[in-house]
Amino acid sequence: MESTLILYNTLSRKKEIFQPLNPPFTGMYVCGPTVYGDPHLGHARPAITFDVVFRYLQHLGYRVRYIRNITDVGHLENDEDQGEDKIAKKARLEQLEPMEVAQYYSDRYFIFMEAMNVKRPSVEPRASGHIPEQIEMIRKIVDAGYAYEVNGSVYFDVLKYNEKYKYGKLSGRILEDLLSNTRELEGQEEKKNIVDFALWKKAQPEHIMRWSSPWSEGFPGWHLECSAMGTKYLGEHFDIHGGGMDLMFPHHESEIAQSRIANGSDSVKYWMHNNMITINGQKMGKSLGNFITLEEFFTGNHPGLSQAYSPMTIRFFILQAHYRSTLDFSNEALQAAEKGLKKLFAGIETLKKITSVDPSVTTTSGINIQQLSDNCYQAMNDDFNTPMVIANLFEGVRIINSVWDKKESLSQADLELLKNMFGLFMGDILGLKEETKDGGDEVVQGLMDLILAIRKDVREKKDFSTSDKIRDALQSLKITVKDTKEGTVWSGD
Ligand code: ZN
To answer: How far away, in angstroms, is 224 Cα from ligand 1 center?
Structure first.
């Protein structure tokens, strides 16, 4: 069918027709994790949202270069320009090298994303691997007169920028309000204005992660890496920049300002932001005691969880809401998602069994499979409306069951069309894969690898109660796990 993709541009606050700068190529940059803690639902939502965008753009025939960065340096506590680096702090507490912390948590991030069938982006650059590019960008901004050096640190001059270009156009914040509402933190006296942000920070003596620069031994500011890596891999102008809504200010706002000055014009055509996840109506936060990691979801090992939820259930739960809507987690909502997903997979199983249709059989009047398939396209073309796609898939399951019960009938052509619709939208685009208990299956092997990796991890931490819980849960599924010299092996019933 004729398809025009429309997406909501956060910058213009309007839905716009997607017209890439250089078709059939398109570039997408998404802000990835700061790797100092275990992946949680807040990591899953942007990863899955933009995975579906990536998959759908590819399906439409675009050659997508998808960049998702790893922040392994420069992200300071409380997202401010003061305080300890988040990764360095974790390293200090655990007596590790900062890069050990970054490696450990980025590995965990990749394992969990793969379990949820999130495709790996084209490039996954790390901030620490792009220090020269960031220094080069700072130099350009200093040369253009929009940054100043104080005591070896370099700050972006937001007031000067705002005179010519508007600072705050993405988030809708007004500079005057920011000036009067931002509290001055200790140690920020270096800045001409409290709204200025760091491009380069001189390292304090105790700061481990440091590099030479024309200004001081130090490290780049957090916002800078995305401008530098976006430019490096996608050029000075590219199509899509995505991330969570919480990054809109100050992170993306500052990215816009840096890139505008360094590249001479605005870099990004479409800004996309996924909304946040709340837990029982509350913001998720370590201090609120409602912080649940993905591992805890997959194992059920958290007081707030009444059971374990599989990676595919989490994926389906996230896709059941439109990416721009808030999504509230509760056990009831996840149980409903689990049930719904089972129903869809059961429908596919039934569909496989409906094989030979008498060529003379026609489709019951009132059923229009072509329309159903077109509805799925229309939903995706309307700003990636995955809940609408899912609603049409459920209607497909209703028809499948009705045909199986011989209450309605489908022609051979409509049957093929329905099979294609499920294969394409459920499998390729929404990325929902069945998690079977059938040994030898790729998905099962992947899941078992994940579970055994978690088990190994908790055993190393001497958390034997969790490791026993995992063993017992596997036993109840008739899966036995044996630790051998060659490693851990498992066998299913
Ligand atoms: Zn970023």
So the answer is: 8
68 within 8 A of 284, measured Cβ to Cβ? no
- State the distance from the centre of ligand 1 to the C-alpha of 251, rounded, in angstroms: 6
Angle at CA of residue 391, ends 385 and 392, nearest 5°: 95
Pick the closest to residue 208 from 78, 100, 69 (CA basis).
Answer: 100
Intrachain domains 6-274 and 294-429 with the same fold: no
CB 96, CB 27: distance < 8 Å:
no
H helices then E strands: how many in the chain? Answer: 16, 15
Q: 41-59 and 311-319 are packed helices; what angle lies between their axes, rounded to 10 degrees?
A: 70
Q: Which residues surround ligand 1, an ion (CB under 5 A)?
A: 31, 226
| pLDDT confidence band for 445 (50 / 70 / 90) | confident
Q: Rounded to the nearest whole angstrom, what is the distance from the C-alpha of residue 252 to the centroid of ligand 1? A: 7
DSSP secondary structure letter of residue 125 = -
Reduce the DSSP state of residue 268 to 3 states and report it: strand
Tell how strand 268-274 and strand 238-244 pair up. parallel
Q: What is the DSSP letter of 184?
A: P
Domain boundaries, the chain: 6-274, 294-429, 439-492
CATH 1.20.120.640 given to domain 294-429 = yes
CATH class of 6-274: alpha beta
Could you give the count of Cα atoms lying within 13 Å of 98 in the half-sphere of its Cβ? 18
Are residues 312 and 42 in contact, defined by beta-carbon separation less than 8 angstroms?
no
- Residue 166 CA to ligand 1 center (angstroms) comes to 20
Query: How far apart (Å, rounded) are the C-alpha atoms in residues 271 and 30?
Result: 10
* Of the candidates 105, 141, 102, the residue with the CA atom closest to the CA atom of residue 228: 141
Question: Which tens digits make up the pLDDT trace of 95-148?
Answer: 888 888 889 999 999 999 999 999 999 999 999 999 999 999 999 999 999 999
Kindly give, in sequence order, each residue whose CB lies less than 8 Å from that of residue 383, ignoring residues fewer than 6 positions away.
6, 7, 8, 15, 322, 324
Give the pTM: 0.87
CB contact set of 457 (below 8 Å; sequence gap of 6+)? none
